[in-house]
Amino acid sequence: MERGMTADQVLVALWRRKALVGAIAAAVFAVGAAVVVTRPSMYEATSVVRVEPQRPGEEMVQRTVSELIEQRLLTVRQELMARPVLQKAIEEMNLYPELVSKKGMEAAVTQMRKDLAVKVEGENAFELTYTNHDPQVAAQVANRLPAIFAEETLKLRQAQASRATQLFTEEMDSLAKSVSTWERRIAQFKVDHMGELPEQMEMNMRALERISHDLQTKSEELRVAENRRSDLARARNAADSEAGRLEAAENGLTRSLVAARTQWTEDHPEVKRLQSELENMTSKRKDAEGRLVAERQERARAADLITGIQTEIASMHKQAETFQKRLDNTPRWAHELGVMNRDYEIARTKYQSVVSRKVEAELAEELEAKTSKSLFNVISPAGVPGVPARPDRFGGLLISMLIALGVGVLTGVIIEMRDDSIRDGHEVRERLTLPVLAVVPNMQGKTEKRVLMPSSQVRNGISSPTELN
């Protein structure tokens, strides 16, 4: 039967069972002390790493890695706890060999995560603490892990920079093909429409003006030639009449001379006169005929000249029509060529921009490689710890002692609360409904005491005795 107890009763009960409470407390303390003493010593080694800002700045070189190195502090714990970094450290320094052989690399990585602590300090530094039972190993791991993290980070950044350069290279090749295609199309377009291009418009207009001027000149030459031919035609008619008259007169003189010779001799004056007139007439006829041939030749030349001029004029008209057609087609081809040139300029501008960005990306990649060694600076390397960080043996012993005392006290209280023994008159009055007539003390070799109880107290149910020595 359980019952409530006051503090005084608890103290009395513990004192009454002091041997049991002490034994239990000693046993619990012995177990706790054994646990504390037998736990292996764990040493902590800490290194502090500063992340140096990147140089030069963006105003000098355009970065191709979008993430600032300082921003990696936001995720430095997750990255240091990542499997690639921890696995590389485990393999490189042969950590947890038994765990790796029994449960594999994943179990070793999980255990290393438990032994590793990362804390960001300020805006550009972090603190790495590694715990191990071997102080030498703890210091080596604490100093090596930042280097492995830096190597992996720099590999990632260099890979990003290299990918950016490769992307610009591929884009540049693609745009170079596009620019070449547009150049070929524009060149072929100019070949197909040679003479009708916008840049040839002024030349065509000048050529058309020159042809118009030449047409006017040739038209004037044609007019002069036609007038000449008309004059020659009129002269031919006149010349033909004179030659005919002279020929008719010569024929008449010939007949008269023949008739005179039949009548007279050669020495006759009439015969000589007729002979002389015939010779003069023949000479005139020949002169007239010679002039007629020359005039015919002149007329032929005039006719040829007119024909040539007309041919030239016809050719000039065709040339004028050609140049006029070119001028008429120029606006159409100018629009199409303008569209092609616009697309070509867009492609060429993109190409030049990508070429410039590629050069900047290559420069950024080179600077990334050159400045990689100075991005992570270990400002406080980990030393070999001389004192174990865990366990805290003094604190453990103190806690064990407190737990032992608590268990002993609790055990004594529980036993007392479950003990139904009655030890004094007060308990009798509390636990029994009957009146207490007398209390016999436990003498146990002590001086005899006499207890007298007046009859009046008995009648009134008062159980407090009067002790007499």
TrEMBL record:
<keyword id="KW-1003">Cell membrane</keyword>
<keyword id="KW-0175">Coiled coil</keyword>
<feature type="transmembrane region" description="Helical">
    <location>
        <begin position="394"/>
        <end position="415"/>
    </location>
</feature>
<feature type="coiled-coil region">
    <location>
        <begin position="208"/>
        <end position="235"/>
    </location>
</feature>
<keyword id="KW-1133">Transmembrane helix</keyword>
<keyword id="KW-0812">Transmembrane</keyword>
<dbReference type="GO" id="GO:0004713">
    <property type="term" value="F:protein tyrosine kinase activity"/>
</dbReference>
<protein>
    <submittedName>
        <fullName>Tyrosine-protein kinase wzc</fullName>
    </submittedName>
</protein>
<dbReference type="InterPro" id="IPR050445">
    <property type="entry name" value="Bact_polysacc_biosynth/exp"/>
</dbReference>
<keyword id="KW-0418">Kinase</keyword>
<keyword id="KW-0808">Transferase</keyword>
<keyword id="KW-0472">Membrane</keyword>
<feature type="coiled-coil region">
    <location>
        <begin position="271"/>
        <end position="298"/>
    </location>
</feature>
<dbReference type="Pfam" id="PF02706">
    <property type="entry name" value="Wzz"/>
</dbReference>
<feature type="domain" description="Polysaccharide chain length determinant N-terminal">
    <location>
        <begin position="10"/>
        <end position="91"/>
    </location>
</feature>
<dbReference type="GO" id="GO:0005886">
    <property type="term" value="C:plasma membrane"/>
</dbReference>
<dbReference type="InterPro" id="IPR003856">
    <property type="entry name" value="LPS_length_determ_N"/>
</dbReference>
